[in-house]
Design a protein that fits this description.
The chain is mainly alpha-helical. The chain folds into 3 domains: about 350 residues, no CATH class; about 100 residues, no CATH class; about 110 residues. Helix content is about 65%, strand content about 5%. It has 25 helices and 5 strands. The chain has a 5-stranded mixed β-sheet with strand order 2-1-3-5-4. The protein is globular and about 80 Å long. The termini are far apart.
Length: about 575
């Protein structure tokens, strides 16, 4: 009997390992779908990171001196997060040559490593099948898929986030110095990779207070942790601030205002934007019912996973609210990737709770509330005119069809005494859990397909860049259209558009929409700008400016949505 038990247990463990392997292979394939294209889209962060990596390779590998291309007539030193990621790309350039795929492959590798750490957290904190469901939710998250091979620091940042949180929890449970040191180093690197990762400190504060209250601060190891975690970021960001003060170059740190203001309480735009970004890109909207059900379930009131994941999510939302001028905008949706992991864990926990429901009234109440929430949200998204970026017409019809079909099935099981359906009454928790998981995965798959549909090379790249290269001589300084100088509430925006600089391998200046004028063009010309690449969409932002430009300066080239002026 012992032999049989051991073999059976071994088979179960092996089966579980195969499930994790299958999930990993699915993710590896999914994240590789868009891996092979160059930096060819209108993504300012990708172009900036790629240009900084190229400048490291060409101008010197001093990691403390990141240089951007829209440097004007200066050396290009820029305030930014610690440039470990573009520096690693530059190291690979030294070995293999300058290929855009290198940056994507590095992000892809970091995405897979962060996935493994998340799997470890899910296995440690959740029992099956909740751990598998959480992993499935994370693997198919459209935000995680979207950033998985982007040339941007988010995949590297998530890996460091997960390592910091996982080892901090291990240290809390074990009091091991090894875990404390690993957690502090990972935290330091995470904040260096992205200053927004300071939210991790809020999470750690919650965990410490939950364990011992204020007595936690009598442990000197907390101060050792804080010293290791915070000293390098403080030194770096003070150093980087000097580049902003000396040269006026910043990658969104000092040249954009992110913070909450009094208008948050009077303007629904920010609240609505933040809510819908989370609902439609992270929760997937059925997931919000599952997560709330798990959170407020008495059975899980004192569970560690509930506390860890809930504290994690609250910390992230504090960060989102404090920086709501950025996180409420649709363009910044990738900022919300940091909330996917805690929501995935809570989703898995909620499904596990549903599978254990014994009270039939609770089961039906949850079902009807889920369907009601989905249908209401579907209608609201249409009435508020936000359907295009969130939910297409076909998806609305699919949601209605799935909800109505499931209501019909439950009605048959509950009302009609049909022999073939009677046995399903005992399977209602499984049916409901399957319905919720299926609808969530279906919506995630839809969002992923939308991401891939929109992931096309910019028409400027495919139609214009080759022509511009033949017209603009080497070593020429160019002036390029930027975005708006100010947001809708009058606060400054990081308006720089770096993609033309990267594609053409040129240096030069950006001009924001509100600054567009003949006088300003003349000032840039005096500083050395020779050609003005003007996006027609930005020219239209200033009435009469394009007409004046055409009267005063020769047009050398016109392409789809673009005009090249000679301003020498």
């Amino acid at each position: 009997m012992d032999f049989l038990y051991r073999n059976l247990n071994h088979c179960i463990l092996n089966t579980r390992n195969y499930i994790w392997l299958i999930l990993f292979l699915i993710a590896a394939g999914l994240y590789a779908v868009d891996l092979w294209h160059p930096v060819d889209r209108l993504l300012w962060r990708e172009a900036d990171v790629a240009s900084i990596a190229r400048n490291f390779d060409r101008d010197g590998m001093n990691i403390l001196e990141p240089r951007i291309d829209w440097r004007g007539d200066g050396p290009g030193f820029a305030e930014m997060e610690f440039p470990a990621y573009p520096w690693m790309i530059a190291v690979m350039y030294k070995i293999f040559g300058q290929y855009d795929i290198i940056g994507r492959f590095l992000s892809y590798l970091f995405s897979l490593l962060s996935l493994l750490v998340f799997f470890k957290m899910a296995r440690s904190w959740l029992e099956p099948p909740a751990s598998y469901i959480a992993a499935l939710f994370f693997v198919f998250s459209p935000l995680i898929v979207q950033i998985s091979n982007n040339v941007r620091p988010e995949p590297f940042m998530l890996l460091l986030d997960f390592l910091a949180i996982y080892f901090f929890v291990l240290w809390k449970d074990s009091n091991s110095w090894k875990h404390l040191i690993i957690a502090s180093i990972a935290t330091s690197l995470a904040i260096l990779a992205k200053i927004s990762n300071l939210y991790i400190g809020i999470l750690f504060l919650f965990i410490l207070l939950q364990k011992k209250g204020l007595r936690s601060f009598s442990d000197y190891r907390i101060y050792v942790f804080g010293f290791i975690a915070l000293l390098p970021p403080i030194l770096w960001y003070v150093h980087a601030k000097g580049y902003w003060l000396d040269y006026g170059n910043s990658l969104g740190l000092s040249n954009e205002y992110h913070w909450i203001g009094w208008d948050f309480f009077t303007d629904i735009y920010s609240i609505k934007g933040l809510f819908f970004n989370e609902l439609f890109f992270v929760f997937m909207p059925v997931g919000i019912v599952v997560v709330l059900f798990g959170l407020f379930s008495k059975q899980f009131k004192n569970s560690q996973i509930r506390q860890y994941a809930f504290f994690w999510l609250v910390s992230v939302y504090i960060y989102y609210v404090l920086t709501i001028r950025t996180t409420a905008d649709l363009w910044s949706i990738y900022y919300h990737s940091v909330s996917v992991a805690p929501i995935a864990l809570l989703f898995g926990m909620g499904i596990n709770r549903i599978l254990k429901i014994e009270n039939e009234k609770v089961l039906y109440g949850l079902l009807y509330s889920t369907v009601a929430v989905v249908l209401i949200l579907t209608v609201v998204t249409s009435l508020w005119y936000i359907r295009p970026p969130y939910m297409g017409e076909n998806m609305q019809l699919l949601v209605f069809a799935i909800c109505l079909a499931f209501i019909g099935l439950i009605f048959l099981i509950r009302i009609w005494d049909i022999a073939k359906l009677r046995f399903l009454k005992n399977k209602l928790p499984l049916l409901l859990a399957s319905f919720l998981v299926f609808t969530t995965l279906a919506y995630q798959a839809y969002k992923i397909s939308e991401i891939y549909k929109l992931a096309k090379p910019a028409i400027y790249y495919t139609e214009c860049v080759d022509n511009l290269r033949t017209i603009i001589p080497d070593n020429s300084l160019i002036l390029v259209s930027g975005g708006k100088c100010f947001d809708r509430t009058g606060y400054p925006l990081a308006h720089n558009s770096p993609y033309f600089f990267y594609w053409l391998d040129k240096k030069g200046f950006n001009i924001c929409v509100e600054d567009q004028s003949i006088k300003k063009i003349e000032e840039f010309s005096i500083r050395g700008a020779q050609y003005f690449i003007a996006e027609e969409g930005q020219l239209e932002g200033k009435d009469g400016f394009e007409k004046e430009m055409r009267m005063q300066y020769p047009v050398l080239y016109e392409g789809p949505g673009l005009v090249l002026f000679d301003i020498r």
